[in-house]
Amino acid sequence: MTSAAEQPSSLLHEYYELCKPRVVMLIVFTAIIGMFLAVPGLPPIAALVWGTLGITLQAASAAAINQIIDRNIDANMARTCGRPLVTGRLGMTESIAFATVIGLAGFVVLWFLVNPLTAVLTQFTLVGYAGIYTLYLKRATPQNIVIGGAAGAAPPVLGWVAATGELHAHSLILFLIIFIWTPPHFWALAIERRDEYAKAGVPMLPVTHGIEFTRTQVLLYTVLLVVVTILPFVTGMSGLLYLIGALGLGGVFLYYAWRLKFSPVPGLPMRTFGYSIVYLMGLFTFLLVDHYVRLF
Ligand code: HEM
Ligand SMILES: CC(C)=CCC/C(C)=C/CC/C(C)=C/COP(=O)(O)OP(=O)(O)O
């Protein structure tokens, strides 16, 4: 009799989990919106299909490499100890082979079916996250996620370049928004998980500088985020509908961050973290809807 771990459907699920599917989905969502914002009408179908596939494969490969490198850290935290490389449901050899194959496939798809610039920039992003952030920054400095956030912020730029073949200043505004969003997104979670990070020896901000200091940083970055999200409007990239949406979503984020600093209650850090995800989805949805409302 085969054990549950050996059944093909359950094995497939382990590979799926190795790719951090929910994070990758939001990352790819921002890349797709980058494609739509890059052009007045609809993006070229090849960029949309192959660009999405290539960026998804490379992001999933980056996430798998992160789990391969971090398996010992992941084993020490309740949140991550159920991951396939920790439980042993996937071995190192097949995980490395899987990450390599999908990463290479993503690069080839982008190079030949989209354009070489997208392939190269996406590959830099993969190295930025899986190499620079995971191998070095995460273990080295509490500013790890601020610097590493550059990799997570790149996908709208990648989508934009996939659709047009060139880097445009407007796409850098989208980069800036996710870059500034990352610290409140992550540090809200890290406040809740401080003890786990301390136990695993990872120098996240609440471990090195304390929870009170981290709450202040979450609030300051959220203020900066609201300011930065006005840029698409003032540069003429987006219209009034976007501005109203951005300020509404930003107001709620500020309310969370303010309470986290000045009247924290148990559970609030995780609710703030959860809202950060809703916020980014909402903001990018407003960017997209506004783009087409202005067009027609
Ligand atoms: C350096 C940058 C980032 C760091 C350190 C970070 C950290 C994290 C961590 C630790 C979690 C896990 C929460 C849990 O297991 O409960 C998480 C979840 C998540 N992150 Fe991030 N994140 C970053 C960037 C991003 C970016 C750029 C996106 C998308 C644009 C994103 C989207 C998400 C989503 C959707 C989840 C929820 C996943 C789930 O429900 O399993 N993150 N993030
Ligand atoms: C297009 C492309 C190549 C994109 C790659 C960018 C990418 C996959 C970013 C993911 C960001 C993220 C989940 C960071 C958390 O890592 P962590 O190790 O701190 O979190 P963990 O403890 O949950 O593993």
From TrEMBL:
Enzyme class of the recorded protein, top EC level: transferase
TM regions (residue ranges): 23-42, 48-69, 90-114, 120-137, 144-163, 169-190, 218-234, 240-258, 270-289
Domain of life of the organism encoding this protein: Bacteria
Keyword Cell inner membrane (UniProt): no
Signal sequence bounds: none
Protein's UniProt keywords contain Phosphoprotein: no
CDD domains for the chain: PT_UbiA_Cox10
Subcellular location(s) per record: Cell membrane
Cellular-component GO terms for this entry: plasma membrane
Additional free-text comment from the UniProt record: Carbon 2 of the heme B porphyrin ring is defined according to the Fischer nomenclature.
HAMAP family for this protein: CyoE_CtaB (MF_00154)
Name under which the protein is recorded: Protoheme IX farnesyltransferase
Biological source species: Hydrocarboniphaga effusa AP103
Lineage of source species: Bacteria, Pseudomonadati, Pseudomonadota, Gammaproteobacteria, Nevskiales
